[in-house]
Design brief:
6 helices; alpha/beta; 6 strands
């Protein structure tokens, strides 16, 4: 049985860049410690947009250019990038269907016991990928470590945690 840790979008723009928050900055040491102590496979995701971001649906709804491919803001935090065991999954939307496929393939090789998600933002990409993992591997335990997540705001972070609980996702370290 294998365990997987998904580190969601721990990128400069979400930590202290274009969409950064003090809560995001505050979780970086927790995220680093979680990765260091984790014994299983670690997968990073990376929010990825092109130069035409403002012309996309997301850009029209969130008119703040961020995570433009190749930019400094797109990069995984320098405090965490050394822990990338494999290339990050570049995702163009909140949830990554590629991640779902990777999880399903991993489970076919050796049963996935649990999938733990940490990262940013709790209320957008963490919840999207937690629900996606639940859909692709309904028998794996899906866990979110709240001490290693931050949302757009503290209130929306908490709302996302509550929504995930209802969907049978275990929330740790609230």
């Amino acid at each position: 049985m294998q365990e997987i840790l998904i580190v969601v979008d721990m990128q400069n723009d979400f930590i202290d860049g274009a969409l950064g928050t003090k809560e995001a900055v505050a979780i970086v040491p927790n995220v680093k410690e979680k990765i260091e102590k984790f014994k299983g496979r670690v997968i990073f995701t990376r929010d990825t947009h092109e130069e035409n971001y403002m012309e996309t649906q997301e850009g029209r709804n969130l008119p703040v250019p961020h995570c433009i491919k190749g930019s400094d803001g797109w990069q995984i935090s320098p405090e965490l990038s050394a822990y990338c065991q494999e290339p990050p999954i570049d995702k163009v939307t909140f949830g990554s269907s590629e991640l779902g496929t990777i999880l399903k393939e991993a489970d076919q090789k050796e049963t996935v016991k649990s999938i733990t998600l940490i990262g940013l933002c709790t209320d957008i990409c963490v919840i999207s990928n937690a629900l996606l993992a639940k859909a692709f591997l309904p028998e794996a335990e899906i866990i979110v470590d709240a001490s290693c997540c931050a949302g757009v705001s503290p209130a929306s972070h908490q709302n996302a945690l509550e929504a995930m609980k209802i969907c049978q996702i275990r929330i740790e370290n609230e």
